[in-house]
Specification:
The chain is mainly alpha-helical and 167 residues long. The chain has a domain of 104 residues. Helix 1 packs antiparallel against helix 5 and helix 2 packs across helix 4. The longest helix has 55 residues. The N and C termini lie far apart (78 Å).
């Protein structure tokens, strides 16, 4: 065989720069930026949902405490008119929070009962007690009717203010 001579390795005469990177690195960087943005967006969305859940839960706890106070005051003083007026105010505030419609504040009588009936099943006797006692501070009613009205208020408030878990 013939005489084969190998040539020596040629090194570049200038330093090889790491910048600009190859196109694959640009694609990887773009994917990393998109992934980071998606994770941040999901984290903010989750935080906002949890915050709304916490606020609704705290509001529900506060409103249930107020309703328990109304019930306790009624059982101590037996003033049905006062209990009905306070329960009606509490229900209106909860409806204004839940529906964000100012028109609810001006409803009274059967129209107000219709709103409460659409929220939760509102018994007719409880509605009669609420409407008649709401505007009459000296209203006297049977204790069972007032307690039934307060129970209906509790069901309605729980329906309005129950923390909704959005997936």
């Amino acid at each position: 065989m013939g005489d084969v001579t190998l040539r020596d390795i040629h090194l570049p005469t200038h330093d090889i720069s790491w910048w600009p990177p190859a196109p694959a690195w640009w694609v990887l960087l773009a994917l990393l930026i998109l992934l980071t943005g998606a994770v941040c967006w999901q984290a903010v969305r989750y935080y906002r949902q949890r915050q709304q859940y916490r606020i609704r839960h705290q509001l529900q706890t506060f409103v249930m405490r107020q309703l328990a106070d109304i019930r306790q005051q009624y059982q101590q003083r037996h003033m049905a008119g006062e209990a009905c007026a306070q329960a009606s105010v509490l229900l209106r505030r909860a409806c204004l929070y839940a529906f964000e419609q100012q028109a609810i504040a001006s409803l009274y009588g059967q129209a107000w009962l219709d709103v409460l009936t659409t929220i939760s099943h509102w018994p007719a006797r409880a509605g009669k007690t609420l409407i008649e006692g709401c505007y009459n501070p000296v209203y006297q009613a049977d204790e069972r009717d007032v307690l039934a009205m307060l129970d209906a208020c509790e069901r309605c408030l729980l329906t309005l203010l129950s923390p909704k878990k959005d997936g």
